[in-house]
Amino acid sequence: MPDDVINAAGLDLTFPSPDGPVHALSDISLDINEGEFVSFIGPSGCGKTTFLRCVAALETPTGGTLTVNGMTPDEARKARAYGYVFQAAGLYPWRTIGRNISLPLEIMGYSKSDRTKRTQDVLELVELDKFANKYPWQLSGGMQQRASIARALAFDAKVLLMDEPFGALDEIVRDRLNEELLALWKRTNKTTLFVTHSIPEAVYLSTKIVVMSPRPGRITDIIDSPLPHDRPLDIRDTPEFLAIAHRVREGLREGMEVA
Amino acid sequence: MTDTQISAPGAGIGRSGRVALAMRGMHHRLGPVLAVVAALIALWYLAAIPMNAQNSLMLAEREGIVLTPATASERRNMSGFALTLAEPSQAVARAFAQDRPRLPSPHQVLAELWDSTVNQNVTSKRSLVRHAGITLAPTLLGFVIGSLAGIALAVGIVHSRLMDLSVMPWAIASQTIPILAIAPMIIVVLNSIGVQGVLPKAIISAYLSFFPVTVGMVKGLRAPSPSDLDLMRTWNASATRTLLSLRLPTSLPYLFTSLKIAVAAALVGAIVGEFPTGAVSGLGARLLAGSYYGQTVQIWSALFGAAIVAAALVAAIGLAQRVTLKRMGLS
Questions:
Q1: What is the pLDDT of residue A135?
Q2: Are residues A86 and B231, on separate chains, in Cβ contact within 8 Å?
Q3: Residue A61 is part of a domain; what is its CATH number?
Q4: Is residue A195 within 8 Å of residue A163, measured between CB atoms?
Q5: Are residues A120 and A168 in the same domain?
Q6: Is the domain of A125 the same as that of A150?
Q7: What is the CA radius of gyration of chain A?
Q8: How many domains does chain A contain in total?
Q9: In this structure, which topology does domain B128-328 adopt according to CATH?
């Protein structure tokens, strides 16, 4: 299909370990279309982060095929096809927020004027434009993570990969950032892969929810969300929302029973 | 008269008040240090009594005082402790003011230090400041060469598995060779190819100072978190770029710590480097000359001179460390 951004077929990944091989990913088949927001949810060891790392070419699958933008993951990485957001904001304490965001642009060889403009644009996008000259330690944890998202958006990557970006934040900050992330996604229409532990977070944000199970890491359910694109926070109390959350929970439980 | 408000910050404290405040802050750190210093000095004075007893009693005998082991030959095989017990009053009275004591007492060393620094013209051959300066030149040159070599080696070790496996054992082996054994060889070999003066001594300094920098920097350059390194990879950053933008800045706390060790080692190298050349000036030459002529006071004051120079160098790096790390947000 032409509009497939990510295409995985029969993906396998086995790590060697002293206690015998660990089957991190087993027969993962998944198509992600342009503009989708896909959440990966499951207990630790289910391979959700590993799958994201395969897409980013930070891990190499041992079997099956995986394409990103029609390229191999490593070609996609070299073409800077994606921006990656880790759980730790990973901002350098010796650089201001603005200079942190322009670091990937410097590395990629953007001109100085282009860097300044792009940094300014993404800072406005995450509402941090007044903090360009502050240092990371002068910002709260939530603001730091917003800066880290801005950094991933600064170069025009087609795909945004997020590995539990709000995992270390408290629930109140998390709720607000979820809302902001949803607004950001609607504005940029960027294909987003989002790893999370939280069922409400996954249901609230996603157009598609991938439920995974450990030993071996595999997909147990793929849910296409019927929720509308406009989602106020209180959508989480509607029967539709609760029905999807229920299905996710069932999928997680099923995976645990088999394992 | 002036625009200064009464309530200006610190206005009520005044200079002495501010000094007192600073002193109060230091008091907690200074107290234990001073207690240890006082204990060491007391121990030193105490040790000087038996150490110098042989000489004390000889001086007493020369003045015609009758002692219990009456002759020097009777006393020769007695220990300092035994002599002190036999003639306590003479041993104590004469222990701290001898010309050539076996162990000079602290005030003698201090007096010599004062005399050879403050009371001497810097150009004088007796000036310890001049000697310290002469040793300082190869120290600093060797420190710079050694640190740069140490950083370069660490960069190689972190980036090349081959270097990691091959260089590190040799670097460790190099430090197991006694510097006193290798220093003359370095001097002789360099002299045979016409290299003389400061450089051979600087190379001995560098030989001692590169190692702590290599070890510290290997750890420092590997200090970035896996996710920071992964992030660089997702941007397809080159190894050079990762080194300059991430690894080097992250390694700075490790660098400064190892530079402190390196600069002290460089001073030791420069002093040892003066021994085989028969140098007549420099702290090492001062130590050597002192031991030739039994001038223990001179040896000890040169030792203290070296310790003071080392402390000053380490303190200077400590200051640079505090300022830099604070500015980098790494402290």
A1: 94
A2: yes
A3: 3.40.50.300
A4: yes
A5: no
A6: yes
A7: 18
A8: 2
A9: MetI-like fold (1.10.3720)
Is there a single domain that holds both residue A62 and residue A186?
yes
Residue A183 lies in a domain: yes
Q: Sheet with A63-68: list strands edge to edge.
A: A22-33, A4-15, A63-68
- Tell me which chain B residues have a C-beta less than 8 angstroms from the C-beta of A90: 225, 227-228, 231
Contacts of B208 (CB under 8 A, 6+ apart): B142, B146, B179, B262, B265, B266, B268, B269
- Indicate yes or no: CB of B227 within 8 angstroms of CB of A82: no
How close A107 gets to chain B, by Cα (Å)? 6
Q: Are A92 and B235 within 8 A, CB to CB?
A: no
Do the Cβ atoms of A88 and B230 come within 8 Å?
Answer: no
Of B233, B245, B249, the CB nearest to A58: B233
- Where in chain B are the domains? 15-103, 128-328
Please indicate, yes or no, whether residues A247 and A176 belong to a single structural domain of this protein: yes
If you count residue pairs, one on A and one on B, with CB atoms under 8 Å apart, how many are there?
Answer: 51
Structure tokens at B187: 């001097």
Q: Are residues A120 and A48 in the same domain?
A: no
Residue A44 maps to a domain:
yes
Residue type, A85: V
Q: Which residues of A touch B249 (CB under 8 A)?
A: 92, 94
Cβ contact A94–B330 (<8 Å): yes
Instruction: Spell out a b/e string for A37-70, using b for 16 or more CB atoms within 10 Å of the CB, else e.
Output: bbbbbbeebbbbbbbbbbbbbbbebeebebbbbe
CA distance A86 to A161: 9
Q: Which residue of B has its CA nearest to A105?
A: B235
Which of A53, A92, A134 is the best residue to mutate to test the B interface, defined by the most B CB atoms within 10 Å of its own CB?
A92
* Cis, bond preceding B50 (omega within 30 deg of 0): no
Average pLDDT of the segment spanning A101-121: 95
Spell out the per-residue pLDDT of chain B, length 331, in tens: 444 444 444 444 445 555 555 555 556 678 889 999 999 999 999 999 999 999 999 999 998 888 888 888 888 889 999 999 999 999 999 999 898 899 999 999 999 999 999 888 888 888 999 999 999 999 999 999 999 999 999 999 999 999 999 998 899 998 998 888 888 898 889 989 988 889 999 999 999 999 999 999 999 999 999 999 999 999 999 999 999 999 999 999 999 999 999 999 999 999 999 988 777 889 999 999 998 888 999 999 999 999 999 999 999 999 999 999 998 888 7
Residue A252 shares a structural domain with residue A168: yes
Cβ under 8 Å to A: B residues 192-231: 225, 227-228, 230-231
- A86 lies in some domain: no
Q: Quick: pLDDT tens for B20-70.
A: 555 555 566 788 899 999 999 999 999 999 999 999 999 999 988 888 888
Cross-chain CB nearest to A90 (options B231, B237, B245): B231
Q: A107 — contact with chain B (CB < 8 Å)?
A: yes
Cα–Cα distance between B27 and B36 in angstroms, integer?
Answer: 14
* Whether residue A72 sits in one domain with residue A29: yes
Task: Check residue A36 and give its pLDDT.
Answer: 93
**Diameter of chain B measured on Cα atoms:** 90
Interface of B with A in 235-264 (CB under 8 A): 235-237, 241, 245-246, 249
Q: What is the ipTM of this complex?
A: 0.90
A63: in domain = yes
* Domain around A99: 91-156
Domain closes at, from A133, A156, A179: A156
Please check whether residues A249 and A166 belong to one and the same domain.
yes
